[in-house]
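Re-running the complex after MR caught last week's input typo. The corrected sequence lines follow. Everything else is unchanged.
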Amino acid sequence: MSDIKIKITDREGVTHEVDAPTDMNMNLMEVVRSYELAPEGTIGVCGGMAMCASCQCYVKSDHVLPEMSDDEDAMLAEAFNVEDNSRLGCQIHMTEDLDGLEVELAPES
Amino acid sequence: MIQTDILIIGAGPTGLFAVFEAGLLQLKCHLIDALPQPGGQCAEIYPKKPIYDIPGFPEVLAGDLVDNLMKQIEPFQPGFTLGERADTIEKLEDGSFIVTTNKGTQHKAPIVAIAGGLGSFEPRKPLLENLKKYEDNGVSYMVKDPEVYRDKKVVIAGGGDSALDWSIFLADVASEVTLVHRRNEFRGALDSVEKVQQLKNKGKINLITPAEIEGLNGEDKLESVLIRKKTTAIEDITLEVDHFIALFGLSPKLGPIGDWGLEIEKNAIKVDTFDYQTNVPGIYAIGDINTYNGKLKLILCGFHEATLMCQSAYQRIFPDKKYVMKYTTVGGVTGFDGSKKEAPKAVVKAID
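Corrected-run output:
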């Protein structure tokens, strides 16, 4: 297992290329938090249970992502600023397939 | 005015356990919480989720943990101010504090312990341009008094339990109920979903999906809403209404506590790990709301912080009293209600 590279555009529009480990059971929300790309308290509020939408992001690259669970789908149905490419970062686990992933954080709401 | 020894802001697991530790020291507690029930996030966001890292519980549902904590602190008769948000704090000359809620309820205590978790849960507001203008003039984010809607035209937006439940309830109260949701699917208890289906079939609820409310209109108060239906072709509907109730769930905000003169870092309150006191002597912060080097937002850490906070609070209230911590296995638990729990005494008896 090795690190993958992903590009994350923060809420100020700045793009960061970061290394994400694939062997730490980490999800995208946690990667964002570990690099402090969004202030604590504004992302991952529910801890990663797909029960808030604070880690909503727009997926910009055409990677095949894990299928959306009912919980994630329902949460996105209630969130704001939702686009067709919206996903919850906490539901995207870092795997080697996701090398080169590009995402943008949705506005805070 | 409510008077107590330790005023705890936030009735989540950390705040509840603080009542127990304070009780062992014969200190009384009162809790304030913006939510209508105790338990904080555990009760509001994930009551049915199992937690696996509470020491001694291989698995416990968040809701059951709250029930157990309520049972554990019962002998210490905590007071509760629920459904009200702590808004202002004032320090008196004698060093004690007065905390006033958004509804004007006043609480006085020598010690304030903020166990506010993620902050107070505030309704999530839709992103509409002139929303503010109609707040309290037709737009609301919760139902306080259903009678307000009697014989009125009401539109409800949202896809969760509260949107479903209030649509059902108001179907018999309002003259017209329209439920708007971005999806055709609703997330809620199965019988609520079925009940809405029945009421829709009977024509008692006007269901518009998949659609969103895109605009608000009216001279001084809300008179109509613009509903954009997003099926194959986009269709705009102007619906005359008296009330728009937006039920998009709750999101936690640090809120007024952020203006209490406490040192804030990363949306949390900085504390000294010696006793979890803030930069204002007499005000403590415990659980998820505090931050310090190495902080982990775990319930079990909140319990520890609550325990040390109570010891420090005791010494602040009684600076001259000598005291050593006593184990419950030795001292038992003596409630303010007169109850007493203690280990059964060993029998000393000769065996023939």
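None of the earlier attempt is carried over here. DSSP finds eight helices and 26 strands in chain B. The radius of gyration of chain B is 25 Å.
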